[in-house]
Amino acid sequence: MRMAIAGRRGGLVGLAMLIGLLLPVMASAQASPVGKANVEQDLVAAVDIGAGTIVLGAETFAVSTRSELLDAGGRPIGLNELTAASSGLDGDMVEFTATRKRKGGLRTIRQLQVVEGDFE
User: Fold this and answer.
1) Which residues contact 103 (CB under 8 A, 6 or more apart)?
2) By residue range, what is the domain housing residue 86?
3) Which of 101, 99, 119, 100 is nearest to 109 (CA)?
4) 12 three-class SS
């Protein structure tokens, strides 16, 4: 009888350890991709420093204090340092990640980096 109780207790401890090991794996497999953003690439069409927005292709994005803007070498730059096609010059080609669009609002740039090259 004593052996049967010890065996059950040992089995319960083993089961608890197995569940403890599997929970993080299961949670990561079910994690929502909301925090993951795909890298997009587009041309800087316009920049509005006063409004804190940037138009990439045909979509307007918000730029916040948390947005990371980088030149082609990976050095931080300001919104005013981007060249927009609306300036009459060739606009910068950029790669960027942004938040998902919120209901009634703009997507916000998370990270944007100028891409070097001739894109004609």
Assistant:
1) none
2) 35-115
3) 99
4) helix
Is position 39 within any domain? yes
Exposed/middle/buried for 16, CB within 10 Å: 0-12, 13-18, 19+? Answer: exposed
Calpha distance 25→37 (Å, rounded): 22
Candidates 31, 98, 115; CA nearest to 63 is 98
**Phi, then psi, of 21 in degrees rounded to 5:** -80, -35
CB 98 within 8 A of CB 40: yes
40 and 96 part of one domain: yes
Residue 120 lies in a domain: no
The gap between the terminal CA atoms of the chain, to the nearest Å, is 83
pLDDT tens-digit map of 28-58 = 333 333 344 589 999 999 999 999 999 999 9
Same domain, 41 and 22: no
In DSSP terms, 54 is beta-bridged to 47, 61
Instruction: Convert the pLDDT of each residue in 85-108 to its tens digit.
Output: 988 888 999 999 999 877 778 999
Residues 70 and 13 in one domain: no
